[in-house]
Amino acid sequence: MKKLKKERYKPTGVLSAPELKTAYGKFLYWLFFTVLCIVVICSVLPAIWTIATAFKGPGEIYTSRSFFPHEFSLPSAKEQILEAWNKLDLTEATINTVIMSLGQLVFKIVVACFGGYVLSKLKPKGTKFIFALVVWTMMMPSQIRLVPNYMTYLHFPFASKGGVSLLDTFWPMWLTAGADTFAVLLFKNAFDGLSSAYVEAAKIDGCSNYGIVFKIMIPLVAPVLMYESIMVLSAAWSDFFTPLLVLDKKRVMPLVIYRLRSDGSIKMNTYFMILVLASIPPFLIYVIFQRWIMGGVNIGGVKG
C-alpha cells in the first residue's frame, strides 16, 4: 500500500501533484500555460494569415482590415489555386524539386549508413583519425567551405582547370547531402547501441558484409533511417541557398518563389497562394511521420 501511494505521488514534471495544489504551484502552472499559449499563437498566426491572404482578392489585401477573406467559396478557391499553378508552370518546378530531394535522400542514406557502420563495427586501421576528421568538419563554419565548394563544383573533382563543371545540375546538392557528418555520427551511435554478437553470428552463418548491413543492421535502426529520410526530404524541399548558388536554368520551388519578388505582374494573392502550395509537402511530412521523427531522435541520441 505504501509503495502504491509512493508511486502515485511520483513527480512527472517540473511540479509534482502535491505542489500543484498549493497557491505557488497553481501560479507557476498558469504562468507556464500562458507563456506556451503566447508561443503557440506567435508560431501559428503567421501561417494562418498567409493562408487567409492567399484566398483574398487583389484589392481586398490592401483595402480590407479583415483577417479572413470576406467572400470564400470552393469554386473560387479552386480557381485561384489553378491560376497560380498554371500561370507560373509549377509542374516543372515541382518535378525538379522532387528529383533533387530524392537524389539527396539516396546519397545521404547510403553514405551515412555505410559510413556509420564502418566506424562502429568494422573499425579498419585509422578509424580514430577518420572519426576525428568527421567531428572536426562539424566544427568548421559553413562560410569557410563556401568558396572551395563552389570552385570544386566549377572544376570537378580537384577544383582545377580542365575538370567537369557541375553547375546548373543537381550533383552539387546530391554530393553535399552525402557529406553530412551529423548523419554519419547518428548512424554510428545507433550501430554502437547494437550488440556485436549479431555481426559475429551472421559471419559464422556465411553472411557477407553487405548482407549483414541490409538484412540485419538496417532493420534494427529503422527509426533512425526514417528520421534521416524525413529530415533530408524536408530540408531539400526548402533548400534555397545552394540552388541559388549553382542552378541557373533549372527551376526549383524555392528559386521560383524568390524570383517572383521582382516580377511586378504577379498579383499579391497569387504570390501568397504559391507560398501556401510550396509549404504543403514539408507540412504533410511532419504531420504524417512525426512519430518516426521523435523515435529517431530518441534512438539516435541514447546509446543502448
TrEMBL record:
Q: Which UniProt keywords apply?
A: Cell membrane, Membrane, Transmembrane, Transmembrane helix, Transport
**Transmembrane regions:** 27-49, 95-117, 129-151, 171-191, 212-237, 270-289
The UniProt entry lists membrane topology as: Multi-pass membrane protein
Keyword Ribosomal protein set for record: no
Matching entries from InterPro entries are given as: MetI-like, MetI-like_sf
Note the Gene3D superfamilies from the entry.
MetI-like
Family matches, as Pfam families: BPD_transp_1
Q: Where in the cell is it found?
A: Cell membrane
Q: Which residues form the ABC transmembrane type-1 domain?
A: 94-289
Family under the similarity heading: Belongs to the binding-protein-dependent transport system permease family.
Q: What is this protein called?
A: Carbohydrate ABC transporter permease
